[in-house]
Amino acid sequence: MNSKEMIARRIAQELRPGMLANLGIGIPTLVSEFVPENHGVFFQSENGVVGLGHRPPEGMEDFDLTDAGGTFVMAVPGAAAIDSALSFGLIRGGHLDVTVLGGMQVDERGYLANWMIPGKRVAGMGGAMDLVQGAKKVIVAMEHTAKGQPKIVRECDLPVTGVRRVSLVVTELAVIEPTDDGLLLRERGPGVSVSAILEATAARLIVPEMVPEMRF
Amino acid sequence: MNSKEMIARRIAQELRPGMLANLGIGIPTLVSEFVPENHGVFFQSENGVVGLGHRPPEGMEDFDLTDAGGTFVMAVPGAAAIDSALSFGLIRGGHLDVTVLGGMQVDERGYLANWMIPGKRVAGMGGAMDLVQGAKKVIVAMEHTAKGQPKIVRECDLPVTGVRRVSLVVTELAVIEPTDDGLLLRERGPGVSVSAILEATAARLIVPEMVPEMRF
Amino acid sequence: MKTAITVDEAAALIPDGASIMLGGFMGIGAPDRLIRKLAEIGRKNLTVISNDTAKPGYGPNPLLDVHAAKKLIASHIGKSPEAQRQMLAGEIEVELVPQGTLVERIRAGGVGLGGVLTPTGVGTEAQNGKQVVEIDGRPFLVEKPIRADFALISCWRCDYAGNLAYTMSAQNFNPVMALAADVVIVEPHEFVPIGVIPPDDVRTPGAIVDYIVGRAH
Amino acid sequence: MKTAITVDEAAALIPDGASIMLGGFMGIGAPDRLIRKLAEIGRKNLTVISNDTAKPGYGPNPLLDVHAAKKLIASHIGKSPEAQRQMLAGEIEVELVPQGTLVERIRAGGVGLGGVLTPTGVGTEAQNGKQVVEIDGRPFLVEKPIRADFALISCWRCDYAGNLAYTMSAQNFNPVMALAADVVIVEPHEFVPIGVIPPDDVRTPGAIVDYIVGRAH
């Protein structure tokens, strides 16, 4: 199991039947692969589908049906197709139970930065600012470090995506919950020591007596 | 031909094929009776129908299809059913070519009052304020006087429906166009003299050399 | 898959003093069974949000007839003598809102906006108490969102996933109200298998519907 | 009844310097024939409003490739290296707008609102230059309407009255943009007789469609 799969599998455990969930591009998209088709969670995508399914059989793609990343998908029975105004109405209006977003940085305030690197990569925020603002629960799915540099930092030096505290951060090393008091270390990766997590993290972490291992 | 029919017939002449038109409750509703079904104008109603038709054959009413007054109607071929948000989006967004509204008073500024008599009749403005604000052209359909009292006045003493100048006022006595300079008398009713119009009007009228009779 | 509750169970969810949105336009597309049941069990002090009060016997009138509402937010009460009488007698608080403003305020409440800026009502009594802002030299009223504890709506078809389709002028405020309440209760005319309503024709996704009232037996 | 024009005739309606809205999301549901034709005939100084720039070859990219746009308003340009390169090189002015804000601004332009108040982007770079208002103690950004000279949209089905239906994720910005431009030009995938799209399934009424691009022969 590689890092990305581990992160996706752990986040899949957070999804419950009947939930309306949005998965961002990248690792978040992987999450759906670890949720059975008959699970009962409804995946929503920014481009206006409620009830996104897995990839269609080769040759049976509907050219008018993709996920928000542009990858061909199926729709599950009971799916709905809506326009962008209603799609973001669901997101900003608090109808979305959970969103899973990729991240460049998360800081001690629980703020997420994931939309631009000034002077370099300018992707645009897409739907990320609405999702961070509007979803009932925001889960960040990202690798713990990038090129050896910690992505969990004291304060984001990249432009933030929102000034709302995210709900949970899941990396291959740790599950971290931003709280009133700071970043709480909830779980460690399989076989990962607390000191290894602290070493890979630039932010201060609140470390409880017991930090259980992630279970899959 | 009674007063109301005369007003409705005259206003029907203002409708062109391809126009999107809204008819208010009362005399305005009558207008559609003088427009052939195959005329090409599309009647929109606040309750979300684009392409309202005449009354259905007795016994063939669709209980889910009425005009804005609650009267059963048919839909024409090519009709569309939309929600109230889009219905008023069309109205306020400038997509409506013309609205025909009933009136209690019109004044020299061209302002219309048609939604309440303080302390007495409190109907509520319904869609009237949006229609007055948003339609490209606002035509007022009303009898020239009420219980002998002029309804075209120097300044409305009833609460106005909007502070936008309406486009045209059609009564059984006259067709009047509010302009920058005041109320311009455009046409007189069949056999009606200019002095009879002036006598039934509390507002100042601009009277050109020639005031042709309405033609039907 | 969703399950249905009875109209009695649905009405029991709604306490005295609740704010309720009622779909419908002149009674067309109104959740009639829920309205009559709430009147029958004697709910009090409700805040009712409805486009209009329809004519006697229709729309919200059964609730007005038994004085179940302490406040009414609507655009038009002209066809209901009882609503007009209660308003003039001071028995009910009535907030009259231009219809296009009413639907946008409910939509704003449903889609997470802090409000909208509308030109409708500028310079009229509808401006009273409202903040006015200039945008590019034109005045607009700041209209705040409206939400309710419950949205009681009706629809034409409902599938087992709770997806809703509406028909003709019975659509009106129903899909917008379905977005703007903490609890959404729908009273469908018909139930159909999943797939009968194609994804493109769903106007209210089942994911935002909380309770479905089953057929009368 | 409406008639169709050719893609050449449609492109000829659009002058240099025009502002154009383009439907589509990652190229899905984009008016591809119109976009390619505008690029081919060498239009210049366009202001392009589009949710995103899609990947090379898709969505607005054919226009970007020939430097037809002087300004771009979009929520995401991450899949188009050419859009990113032109932005960083200062060859094109780019206004990045959060996606939900972009669609509400276009909708506001289309439905006659002076703007909307959104919580999205408060405290971020998206707040720069925006007015902030407090509503009931919470901060919101005042977001102004966006309109364009032309909306170029695509749809699934179009009937002879110009009524449009969309399918699956190809709907996206198309119906909203159809409201927000002086001239609406649609590029349908299919033509069907009146009645094939039931009134309840029409998402864009024909009354607001100005030009229909006929099939390629």
Written overview of the protein:
The complex is a heterotetramer, with two copies of chain A (216 residues) and two copies of chain C (217 residues). Chain A has a single domain, classed as 3-Layer(aba) Sandwich (Glutaconate Coenzyme A-transferase). Chain A is α/β, with parallel strands linked by helices. Chain A has a ten-stranded mixed beta sheet with strand order 4-3-2-1-5-8-12-13-14-15. In chain A, strands 7-6-11 form a three-stranded mixed beta sheet, with no helix packed on it. A two-stranded antiparallel ribbon of chain A has the order 9-10. Chain A contains five helices and 15 strands. Chain A has helices at residues 3-12, 27-30, 84-92, 128-134, 194-199, and strands at residues 20-23, 42-45, 49-52, 75-81, 98-102, 105-107, 112-113, 137-141, 145-146, 149-150, 152-153, 168-170, 174-179, 182-188, 205-206. In chain C, strands 1, 2, 3, 4, 5, 9, 10, 11 and 12 form a nine-stranded mixed beta sheet that branches. Chain C has a three-stranded antiparallel beta sheet with strand order 6-8-7. Chain C is α/β, with parallel strands linked by helices. Chain C has one domain: Glutaconate Coenzyme A-transferase. Chain C is globular. In chain C, helix 2 links the parallel strand 2 (19-22) and strand 3 (46-50). Chains in contact: A-C, A-D, B-C, B-D, C-D. At the A-D interface, helix 3 and helix 4 of A face helix 4, helix 5 and helix 6 of D. Strand 6 (115-118) of chain C pairs antiparallel with strand 6 of chain D, so a sheet runs across the interface.
What is the percentage of strand-forming residues of chain A? 25-35%
Which percent range fits the helix content of chain A?
Answer: 10-25%
Quote the CATH topology of chain A.
Glutaconate Coenzyme A-transferase
Number of domains of chain A: 1
**How many runs of DSSP E, i.e. beta strands of chain A?**
15
Termini gap of chain C: 22 Å
- Number of helical regions of chain A: 5
Task: Please identify, by name, the CATH architecture of chain C.
Answer: 3-Layer(aba) Sandwich
**Widest sheet, order of strands of chain A:** 4-3-2-1-5-8-12-13-14-15
